Amino acid sequence: MTHPFTGAGVALITPFNEDKSVDYSALGRLVEDQILGGTDYLVVLGTTAETPALSDDEKKEIVRFVIEKNAGRLKIVVGLGGNNTLGLVQAIRATNFDGIDAILSVTPYYNKPTQEGLFQHFKMVVEASPVPVILYNVPGRTGVNMDADTTLRIASLSEKVVAIKEASGDLAQFAKIINNAPGYFKVISGDDGLTLPSVALGSVGVISVIANALPGMLSQLVHASLEGNIAAAGRIQLQMGEMLKLIFKEGNPAGVKALMEIMGTAKNELRLPLVPVGEATRSQLQSEWLKLS
Length: 293
Description:
alpha/beta; TIM Barrel; eight-stranded parallel beta sheet; 13% strand
């Protein structure tokens, strides 16, 4: 049986208008572009969505809007994480899960818990969630790395724990999880640039940032990788290599929003404390886009 979150996932941006309100017209177009581009599932309210800068009402409306726009065509994953375990459990219990296929739950940030603290945190999250849970390890943002042994310990709690979005960049950590995980638990790359090597190790795909701008190209890369067409996947990975460096050069989602403005698919608007990329990076993005297009 194919894992439900195999393939190309996209961590959706939140498009904004010039007045910093949510641009729902652009968000609707983005959902359609993903479906047409071959994306396999949508991730709403992840890091790329600037979720910490959204109000609770905006979060609820964005999820509702994406579910309505998607109309059951793709699976939907919603980001539900935090560094207050009891508060997070309460938020999960208060969530309407109609139309939501799984949650993506990041390791607690800022607190810097021990590995035992991470295990106990996710134990409560798993118990509270009525839908499958995808763990999210991104030490570059949270200040703590969830090691492979802890990930495997959490995975063994329940078949409800279906995957980890692994964004440590450590392929040895990828390999240890993949080699020792129960059959229902899979690794999903959290780094666009490691899509091909992670699939070669046994991951089931990627949750991507660049797919916001280039869904067709990213989905072709993932699908070729999963089909074992390494030559084709390698060509696409190399073709995208410079663009991947540039979109993360001044942080995420500043880079991909600049690219999307260049492409005419979204405005280059962010909410503080994030700001647009500098003119030098924007110029490089424009040059690279001309090469790709």
